[in-house]
Structures are given as C-alpha cells and as structure tokens.
C-alpha cells in the first residue's frame, strides 16, 4: 500500500494524489564521499514518504551517533581488524532500556581509520556481527567536520564562548560548515541503507548531527525521528550570533521529539525558535510541543543516567579491592577530596585548584590533613587553549605543593595519565568528597558515578574496615552550571567563578556532621539508582512513540529546498478551499459578516507604502453597498489613521488597535470596549 506522503507542493494546490513511478532507489552497502557537498538539494533523490512497503514488520531502533560503540585494533599476527563492544559507550548502555524485543542497529564512525580497499569487508563484518553500519569519512573531511566546525564553532558557542578574537574559537568558516553538512549527508545515506521507514525508529545523538533530521525527513516524510542534545543549548543572545542559526533550528525541527538534559536548555531552545523563527509553544498535561507547519514537535526534558550494573561489576573485581587497599595505605590519616575532569577550558580545573589554595590559606588547620586528588583525563579537542589549561594546571599544582607541602606529602596529587576504570572507581571509593567545578557542562556524570561507588559493597567495606550494616556517606560540591546540578538537591552548589565561595564550600564539606553526610548520600543514591541510563532510554522511547502516534493519520507534503526543507502536515479532513463553493455560498446567504485584516490582506505585508490604494477602497465600498453585508476592517493601526484613510467608506466598520477601538458602520465617534 502506498502511503499518502507527498513531496511536491503542486499536490497540495491540486488536492490530488500523485502517481508514483519506478522502484525505490537502492543504496550501496558502503558509500563514501571524497569531497564536499553543498547545502543544495540532492536532485537524484526526491522526497517521498515511505512509498515502498516495509520488508520488516518488527519495530527496530536505529541509533545514530558520531562514533560507533566499538573498539577497533589490528591483530598483530595477521594484520586483520578486530572489533569488540565499547562498554563505556552511552549508545551501547542505553540499549538496556529499550527492551529485548526491539532490535537495535547502530550508525556511526569508527575511531580508527580504515583503508579504502578494506571498507567493504569491514562494513559487512560489522553489520553481520554487531549490527553496526560504519560511516567512513575521508580524513581531511573529518578534520574539517569534527575538529573544525564541531570543536571550533559549535562546542565553544554552546558553552557560552563567543569568537571575539581568532584565538577564541575562531571566526566562522563557511568551508567548515559545508564539511559539517557533507558529513551529515553521509550519515543520512548510511541510515538509508538499513531503514525500514514504516517500522523503524531513528534516534540521533548530539550536536555533531544536528542537520541530519532534515536529510532523513526529506527522504521519508513520515520517518519516526528523535534527537537528543547532550551538550548545553545556549541562551538566545549567544545562539543568535551563529551565522547558520536558522538552518540548524529548522533542521532540528524536522525531528518528532527533541530531548534536553535540563529545563534551562529546553527553555533556551524554545526561546530561539520564538525569537528567530517566530514559533510559539504550548504545554499541555506535562508535555511541551512546538507547532511547525502543522506538525507538533515534542520537547522532552530528562537528564541521562549512568549504567549502574557496569559500575557494580567493576566494584566487585579483585583488582578494585586491591587498588582500594593501596590507596587506603597511601592516604592513611588524610581526608581525600577528588576531582575527575577532562583537561579542557570548560571543566574549571584551574578554578578548583585556586579554591584549594584559598582553603589552605584561610584554614591552615587543613594542611597535612586534606589531600586533593585531581584526575585529569586527556582533552577531547586540541589547540592552544588545551595547552594553556595544561600549563596553568601544572604551574598551580607546583605552586601549592611548594608552598604548603612537605617532603613525602603533597596537598594536590595530579594524575594526568590514563587510568583503568577500576582504578578510577577505587579513587571514588576512598574519597570523602567529590568536587565538580566546571564552568559549563551539558550533563557531567562524575557525581552519579561517585554516589554509586560510595555505596560500595561488603568486600570493599571489609577492605576499608567499615561496618557493612552502617549507613553510607558522601559529600558533593558541584557547579551550578552543569546539567546534573538540579537533580542533586543534597549537593553544595557553587558558582565556580567565585573562588572564595568554592573554598568555603570545600571547608563546609569537610566539617559537616556524619549524620548529615549519610542523609545527603541516601537522598542522592535513591535518585541515581532509580534514574539510570535504562530509565532514561525507556522514557525517551515512550515519548517518541507518543510523538509519532499520528503519523499515519495525517496527510504530508514536503516543501522547500536544501536545509530549508520541511514537511507540511494536515488533518485528513483538510480540503482545498474552493472558490466556486465560496461564490455559491455567498450568493445563497441572506446575511453576511465579512471581517478583513488590513496588513497582509488588503495590503502586502512589509510594504513601504501602507496607505490603501484606490482599488482597495473601491472593493470595500462595493462590499458595503450590498445591504446583506456587514463589513469590518480589523487592524492594529491607530484609530485616527484608519478613520482618515477610510472616511469615504461610510458603511465600513473599523476595529482599530486590534479591536480595542470600534467604529460601527455609519457612526463617526469611536467607543472603547
């Protein structure tokens, strides 16, 4: 059966169903693009919605992310590629919340470069073994896409850093934007290889693929499409500086459901849609929806969780217990405060170190008693800003230890080498307080991991000499600018830019009573353990199903070119307005009320000359002469202006200033309602 999704605007004008000729286009198993693609339409592929009958009746979820949840390396013996699941990948972890009966297919890039002559074999292996579809991006194009547009433009801007100088993110580069569009187009082609549009759900992740929804919606008007942004979404005052702001907003609105971690991120997005696209939203029964050309784009607010099972399995490892014992002996008699951050400009490592220095100056009793362990993971980006963060971090650590330390004792222990997961978890276990002072972060799951690890288990309690039946305890000091902050009501929230306030918060965390630590930990553990990654994924899928529930009921037409493409969705009862029917009804009726708008109806919108012309005045007089008609002109313009312009239309009623002032037919004076 052919679904009634139309791609030609002429279909909307005629009201007729189009005829579909030819077979559905077949896509190669592996498709690569050697150069750049422009933003214009792909003329070789028209937008048709689910024209081919589904070959698969079972519902599937196609998860699309920048990287596949796989690890790849070459076998040293035979040089062949070896692949395994990346257990740390969120895209793999969320599968636990989708149900065993829902087949999951992944689309994304590999972390390693694969030679052109190996790509066919690798793609076939990954599809058959892991149900993964790799998108092979040429190295030069990937550099412009990821290290260029994503990391130089989107990432800083979404974290509130404007390119005020070439050193701060860099000026907008159109070639980088074209590379971004090109890579998104490649991802769309990969999805097209495996999608069954009548049955499958597509879930796109993060800012790397924000224009992908347009390419997918153009191919299939009724695709069931969700998008989740894992980074912050900036305020409209920041976002509006992006030269391609409208293109990205319109692309996101081609999704059925758009997810954000916090209410603030969603509020900023809605504000941008209102200020830049003139769209309004409604909130009904707890759901937020944007009306966009007849479609309702749903907005979901839910912070992601962690994979508790993975952490608990690592907590049970003998290596973890051995590392905990080692750290227990290393820091015996000292209170450990822990920071775990990437080495980039937004994580606030230097601010945390300055607060530690302030703490030691204001509370000298903590010298020799407190240790700050700072785990600095390698930065995901690159550039001078990363080097500056590293230099400042090393210099500050050295200054603090030289000033307040002593032989055999450093107040700040900086770990800048990669750690195994069990080693990091061991630090969580022995830390009395966890500090997160990022100046801006989309979510940050470090506090959640810390809470679960502090819950521990019997074996770790025995290692630390704790009573397994005793209540657990933990303390958190978190920045108010990170996504997890609203969900951690028991944490001490700080403005990381206020060094004195952070230092006082660190001191408060050290002196708070044991009972208070237990209460805060219990509250946090109850939330984190019930709002894990499976809960988040399950909730998103439920809302996506609801958002796509009326797809088959609506009539759809795709209009627009390039990234301006959108779908007009109409109720099945919609019919084209017939001029003949209106004329017939006009002649049959005995009493007619005719309400006419001025701007945009009698006069073109945006016209420099707003004075009514002779033709418009003549039409109004002709309508008013018919005794069966009552004609009113409604306008936001001032009553004096309307009275002056239409003084010759004695039988014309005027509603000035959007109806606040009314002049009925044949009356001179105005009245206020």
UniProtKB/TrEMBL annotation:
PANTHER family according to UniProt: ALPHA,ALPHA-TREHALOSE-PHOSPHATE SYNTHASE [UDP-FORMING] 5, TREHALOSE-6-PHOSPHATE SYNTHASE
Natural source organism: Gossypium lobatum
Listed Pfam families: Glyco_transf_20, Trehalose_PPase
Family statement: In the N-terminal section; belongs to the glycosyltransferase 20 family.
Protein name: Uncharacterized protein
UniProt KW keywords: Glycosyltransferase, Transferase
Domain of life (superkingdom): Eukaryota
Coiled coil segments of this chain: none
GO BP field: trehalose biosynthetic process
Gene Ontology CC entries for this record: cytosol
InterPro entries: Glyco_trans_20, HAD-like_sf, HAD_sf, Trehalose_PPase
Gene Ontology molecular functions: glycosyltransferase activity; trehalose-phosphatase activity
